[in-house]
Write a structure and sequence with these properties.
Length: about 190
Amino acid sequence: MAPNNVGTLFIYDPKSPGAHRAARILATAALAKVSVTLDPTYTHGTTNKTPEFRAKFPTAQVAQWQGFVDFSVLNNLIFVYGSIAGFNKFTPELVKAKLAAAVDALAKVDAYLALDGRKFLLGGNKVTLADIAVVSGLVRGYQGVYDKAIQETYPTVFRYTQDILAIPEVKGVYGEVAFAVESPLVGRLE
């Protein structure tokens, strides 16, 4: 490992839409000015199921904000995107419910940030792992179903997401993010 390398990340393409946890790790490492090696031999669904891999990497406890984004945002968005892509049966009532839950989570973050005009989730003037965890999930919504109308309804969290993504070290992981203008669900939920 190179100097300042903190370890190896076992993941497929970290810029793919399903790699939000990898992007979270890489953005955090970039902010900490350390490097992470990506294992080029890793094959998701194969490598991570071997007894050797599982023995080395048992499941760990997640922090509060990370759990919030994974369960309240990403679980719902994954279902919505899966329905759009045809991986799930497209049931308008269920897609509406999952989308409403993902938007409700967005509204909670917006209200929390607006309480005292805070710039970061934990207050202060520094980005923390909590911010990276939340933005890593929200960005997936903003790339697809958190369209212009939702962005305008919850401007505080939208600005917050843009500000975190503009930090040079974080931008190095995510690149230029194209924010949704119109949801791919327009006309499909009637």
